[in-house]
Amino acid sequence: MPLQYQPLRKIISLDQLTPAQRDQVRAAGKLYDGKDLPIEARVAAEEDGVAFYGLKHREIHVDGSHAYDAWTYNVDSGTTFIANTTEVVGELVQYAFQPQRTPAGDRFAALQAESK
Length: 116
What we know:
Mean pLDDT: 91
Structural class: alpha+beta
Helix content: 25-40%
Largest sheet: 7 strands, antiparallel
Distance between the termini: 11 Å
Number of domains: 1
């Protein structure tokens, strides 16, 4: 069951995000810097220290179905969630993916290994 990575989308406006995606970006921000800020602060045009520079989203499919949402930001950071939830399966830290030590994180890591 390899992971199927969908095209990367650059996020430049809140209008591009569903309510679930807005929740994910907010949760990613809190994990990133500990600040629970409004979504508008993370998807901002200016670099002010809290906005996610270069925010991008990618759906990851398993068996043809949307299974995960992966976000990258600030060049080398990111968070991956179970699709349409705020349940984290792993984080990207300085370009290295680190799965959560949870059943969901372990499953994603196993799927990742199968996909190589």
